[in-house]
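Before surveying the methods themselves, let us examine one representative protein, written as a sequence plus integers encoding its fold.
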Amino acid sequence: MLIDIGVNLTDKRLRPDRDAVLERARAAGVEALIVTGTRLAVSEAALALAAEHPGLYATAGVHPHDAKTWTDASADALRGLLDRGAVAVGECGLDYNRDFSPRPRQRHAFAAQLALAVEAKRPVFLHERDAHADFAAIYAEHAPPAGGVVHCFTGGPAEAEAYLGLGLHLGITGWICDERRGGALREAITRIPLDRLLLETDAPYLAPRDLRPKPKGGRNEPAFLPHIAAAVARLRGEPVEALTAATTANARRLFGLAA
């Protein structure tokens, strides 16, 4: 059985047939999903979904794209969502690729959410794109004892070693199946200790490029997580059953999920 640690289940592309998406996930052996909160309203919706469906959990945070909206009131709102059962703070971090929010605002919101994770004794669900040096420095300064995961890790061996050195887990998506862009990640995948590895789809984004038949409209689903698990196991030279058992145990331990 697998746990998908990052699903954008509130996304409009999954909304029309969400119940069927969940049913297909269960049929594929995905026993639990963590719904990603990317801003306050989305975090609220993610937590509501988790309350409605057994096997669903939610994170609560403000994505770096929306860091320009961060205020002290944002921290208060997230405290409330954590009190109601959100399992992690995030998605939070830095994104210097698109710069939808000014970089100083991104850094401020990131540090504030790390401080909130320390206060709430929660792990963090992290986003980093083209911001490795600043991201690592800020995390090292404010690292929450409960740890966290670099969601959708796409870097190479050097970045993997740096994040592992900070005590972080690494979340692997269908990027590993991308023959155009996944070379660095495939090089790094054997260097990640099995007890630091997590699996996710980031659905509806990042459908594995080698899926056959290709999903309609390129939409990713949690039901494709076994395909990602098989690719990771093959690249690491490990039985997929061992990889599945380990990543599921890792997710339960990091996020405090009940068996």
Summary: The first strand starts at residue 2 and ends at 7. The two ends are 11 Å apart (CA to CA). The first helix runs from residue 18 to 27.
